[in-house]
Write a structure and sequence with these properties.
The protein contains eleven helices and ten strands. By secondary structure, the chain is an alpha/beta fold. 34% of the residues are buried.
Length: 263
C-alpha cells in the first residue's frame, strides 16, 4: 500500500472511507469519515484499558472494535461501552510469525553484531518514569553482562522522547546507554517490530509490558523486575500483574537479575 503522513488538521474535512486507530486515546477529528475501527495494540492491562468504564473516550463512534482476547472483549461488553454488533475477536496477528518460527535467530544475531557463542537476553521495559528503566535500567543491563549474556536493549519508543518528561522523564536514554555500550555484547535496538528480537533472545527481563506476554509464547525464561510504583502510576490491572508474574521469576534488586537469568 502506498502511504503518506499528513498533519491532523489537513484531513479533518477530507472524505475518507475508513479510519483505523490503535487504542482509543486522542482520537482524530474527522468530519467526513464513513467507517471507523479501533484495534488494541497491547494486552497488558495498563492505563485503565481493562477498566473501560474509566476511559475518557467513548466507543460509540466506532463501527468495529477489534479485540486481542476474549477477556477484554467481555469487559467492554459487560459495561455496555461496546455493542455486540461492533465487537469482534481478532486475536493478535502480529505474533503469528513469532509463534510459527519464521525468524532466523542466527541471522538476527549477525545483524545485531552480537557474539554468537553467548546466550542473549533482551531487556524490554515499559515506558514510564516509574518503570524499571528509571529505577535501575543501566544496572540491570550491567548485571546481565556480568552474568555472561549478550544484551538486546529494546526500549518503548515513548521512552526515547527526551522532550516529554511524562514519557522519558526528560532523559536522553540513547546517550545514557551509549555510555555503557560494549561492542559485540550490547545492541541498542529501535526496530518498530520487536518479534524478531524475541526470537533471537534466550531470556527476557521486563517490568510489566505486552512484550512480556508475547515472550511467554516461546516458553523461555522470563524475569520481572519489580518497579514498586509502576502499578499505581501506569494504572495496571492487578489481575494482569499476577498473570505475568505467575510465568516469571521476580527480581527486586539489579544485582539479582544476572544470576537469576543464569538459573
Amino acid at each position: 500500500l502506498r502511504a503518506k503522513i499528513h498533519a491532523r488538521q489537513t484531513v479533518e474535512w477530507r472524505r475518507l472511507d475508513l479510519c483505523l486507530t490503535a487504542d482509543p486515546w486522542d482520537p482524530i477529528q474527522l468530519r467526513r469519515c464513513r467507517r471507523r475501527a479501533n484495534f488494541f495494540h497491547g494486552l497488558a492491562g495498563k492505563y485503565d484499558l481493562d477498566s473501560p468504564d474509566r476511559l475518557p473516550n467513548a466507543f460509540k463512534d466506532y463501527d468495529r472494535v477489534a479485540f486481542i482476547n476474549a477477556d477484554r472483549m467481555r469487559r467492554y461488553l459487560e459495561v455496555g461501552i461496546v455493542t455486540r454488533d461492533a465487537a469482534v475477536l481478532v486475536g493478535y496477528p502480529k505474533v503469528d510469525a513469532l509463534v510459527n518460527g519464521r525468524y532466523d535467530a542466527a541471522a538476527i544475531h549477525s545483524r545485531l553484531q552480537l557474539e554468537m557463542h553467548r546466550p542473549t537476553a533482551i531487556y524490554a521495559p515499559t515506558w514510564s518514569p516509574a518503570s524499571s528503566l528509571h529505577v535501575a535500567g543501566e544496572d540491570i543491563v550491567k548485571s546481565l553482562l556480568d552474568a555472561g549474556f549478550n544484551v538486546i536493549v529494546k526500549l518503548h519508543d515513548r521512552s526515547l522522547d527526551a522532550t516529554e518528561p511524562k514519557f522519558s522523564g526528560g532523559i536522553d536514554w540513547r546517550a545514557r546507554f551509549a555510555h555503557i555500550h560494549v561492542p559485540g555484547r550490547i545492541a541498542f535496538v529501535e526496530w518498530a517490530d520487536s518479534s524478531p528480537l524475541l526470537a533471537a533472545s534466550d531470556v527476557m527481563v521486563t517490568d510489566h509490558s505486552s512484550i512480556g506476554f508475547e515472550f511467554c509464547l516461546l516458553d523461555r525464561p522470563l524475569l520481572i523486575f519489580d518497579a514498586p510504583d509502576l502499578a499505581r502510576v501506569a494504572r495496571i490491572n492487578p489481575e494482569k500483574i499476577a498473570l505475568l508474574r505467575g510465568a516469571a521469576r521476580v527480581a527486586r534488586q539489579a544485582g539479582e537479575v544476572g544470576p537469576a537469568a543464569v538459573e
